[in-house]
Amino acid sequence: MTFKDPCNLRxxxxxxxxxxxxxxxxxxxxxxxxxxxxxxxxxxxxxxQHIEDGELNLDKLRGTVRTAIRMLDNVIDINYYSVPQAExxxxxxxxxxxxLMGFQDALYKIDASYxxxxxxxxxxxxxxxxxxxxxxxxxxxxxxxGSYSSYGDHSGAGIFPMDSLDILIEQRGEQYIDVNRDKxxxxxxxxxxxxxxxxxxxxxxxxxxxxxxxxxxxxxxSIEPTYQNLYVKSNLxxxxxxxxxxxxxxxxxxxxxxxxx
Length: 261
Hints:
By secondary structure, the protein is an alpha+beta fold. It has 10 helices and 6 strands, in the order αβββααβααααααββα. β2 and β3 form a beta hairpin.
């Protein structure tokens, strides 16, 4: 369940209007009005491809995120817009949403169960890294191409998503916001960079469900756990059905000497 007020309290675009709703899958909350229909171009990092010998390869992840942010920003300029309000909004705020897929598969690679403390620690680390690298890449694009036209407010004041929790705590009370806020990267240096160069995009992250692209890529969907070794997926109203095998899970249990069929 998602509530409108926290979304507005933490929105980096408060100076541009109100967040009235999320998109269909609730991975983004962008401001809209009579002149603007929010549009967000989405992409997802294939996380298991960045696990090597049971460890997260941060350098490889940084390279992937930097490329993805540039690609998603390019989509804004070459996209087709069916209505002028969508084009106006997208060019004014240039929001993009980079997420991830294959989280469960990555856990298999680091030998961590989905509900374990190790999995929570790993989740903290990867989300901090993707957020950091995405903001860094967008700021570098701003140096190259210029900031988005409505740039200001949170990002301009050095308030990043992690910092916006302070705003929520001020409004709701710390007893309701119990999350790990440890940092492993140099956020002060990144804030100084953004203060100088600005941001190319008003929004840079969105954790989408990846229901189709994860199947195409052959990894688990988004940040969700796998619940079966084999299941049948169907699309309606088209009567297409196909079998999905969770090879990473099957391979993992096979190494333990357990039959998965």
